[in-house]
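Notes on consecutive records. When two proteins share a document, each keeps its own sequence and its own token line. Never mix them. Below: protein one.
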Amino acid sequence: MTAPLLKVTGLKKSYGAIQAVAGVSFEVMPGEIFGVIGPNGSGKTTLFNSMLGQITPDAGTIELNGKNVSRLGPMALNRLGVGRTFQTLQVFGKMTVRDNLIVAAQEHQGSMFGRIFAPTDSGLGARADALIDRFRIRHVAHLKAGTLSYGQQKLVDIAMAFMSEPDLVLLDEPCAGVNPALVGSISTLLGDLNRNPVDGKRSSFVVIEHNMDFVMGLCHRIMVLVEGQVMAIGTPAEIRGNRQVLEAYLGG
């Protein structure tokens, strides 16, 4: 039986009297695209920030490849194979698109001595070029990222998350602020990258997103959070057909 890549067990986080996450448990399998949905205030952001190492949970465990990473910070998690995007863009506006991708992966190049004497692109140019082509941004690769449209910057931001050859990629609202015409393209790109990775190494994704069509079309399984607790976990078809979910979240 295949072991889960990510295993979250009994996760809890409170802010004063408010329990933002109240004993959440779930697993993400290797190569799976796992969606997290729920109304505002359901605990999605707190859960994500815990998995990213930005906050420390009060109780419960987060395991990556069988290792307890519940108390690790973002940099340590990145080195263990966790890529991430945020709701707000994290691109370097004064750097070219290609250099943005290279910088995103340089922390994986070992010692400072090794990076100083590495090629000028830190040996990452080929992977950057492959991702640039996969994300269809070759025509702007030489431009400063700050000169691009918001949608193009979003594609750069997502591509940067894949530069470190991650086992797990956490995508926080990848469609936020994006022109509706681009949403379908992002879904297609992510689905293709999951099925046909650049280097043959298939990543798992965890996606928080309010766009229901996007989540239903992309994710293999979906978890519904309501008031900090898991209401349901299932395939898109199972979630669509869950009366409790429809009443609590989808308005059915």
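Protein two starts on the next line and is unrelated to protein one.
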Amino acid sequence: MAIMSSFDPTPADRFSFGLWTVGNPGRDPFGHAVRPVLDPCDIVAKLGEIGAWGVNLHDEDLVPFGSSAAERDRIVGDFKRAMADSGVVCPMATTNLFSQPIFKDGAFTSNDPAVRAFAIRKTMDAIDLGVELGASTYVFWGGREGAESDACRDPRTALANFRDAIDFLCGYVKDQGYDLRFALEAKPNEPRGDIYLSTTGHMLHFISTLDHSEMVGVNPEVAHETMAGLSFVHGVGQAMECGKLFHIDLNGQRIGRYDQDLRFGSEDLKQAFLLVRLLEGTGGGARYDGPRHFDAHAYRTEDHDGVWEFARGCMRTYKLLAARAAAFDADPDVQAILSGTTEANLVDVGAGYSAARGEALRGLEIDAEGLGAKGLGYERLDQLMVEHMMGARG
């Protein structure tokens, strides 16, 4: 008999998976599927069985492209019953704007206005589906919103068309009275040679130009930011600092590779530790209270039993890292290093500029040479982090 541990997932952890993640049949550009395709209702039942909280989906993950209205309603009805039976909820939905040939040169950014209109109409229908299933967050990943040859369009035109689409869809959500927020997902490349709005920082600025920026945030993904050679923790921290982390995609990725979508924590364990520490707020910052979504898939070597081992592993690793992060931040040796700041009475520049504060700054006696010579103890801090990660402390 299996023994429950404190690291086994429960719905209270708010872990979610996409139909496209645990349902991935192991197909890749060089090989056919190695696993039979799973029925979405069976996926939901199994997710409930292993302790997951939520299931996310693209419209076509559930309702095949071109289905009739009657087929759509039958499929959705069966899926809703499966969710009710398993206790699994649908916190997020999105639209597939990349698989169909019509999107070969983009969806919202296509040069062809008929393609752009089709993409927006398809997204309106998919938003209706997501809301019907209970989703409160709607993600946009522009997988085809880019170019191989930039001679095909002015990037300013592409961005303007993307903005028009998001503004229009925000208007649609408001007009329908839906309680729904949008989250934009960045990626630097693949499947396009270059994708517009390639990092979380690009997305955050773009959001500031929207008509309804208050209802739009970001959905950063570990693999996507790592592909760009950037610190995912920094990108997530920036999104949290400006109140725009509406959703997050967790997985594993090796820098310099194609989009691998590996099991969370299976690569760069230190970055995974720091990310969980940030999300859980164990270092003193505000805790992220949204879903912990795993946008990853099992190795192609696995059968369906291996897929569910993969899913359990994602959740268990997150909980293990959360426990290690809490122990690290409670360690007196860690606290002593992090609290070792200057004792001088400094000017509060956070209160804003005033002539008096400017003069007070000029009058401060600061020992620049002494501060420059002072060791900060970060080598020991980093070693303490490694020892906590490895279970040698705490």
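For the record: The chain has a mean pLDDT of 96.
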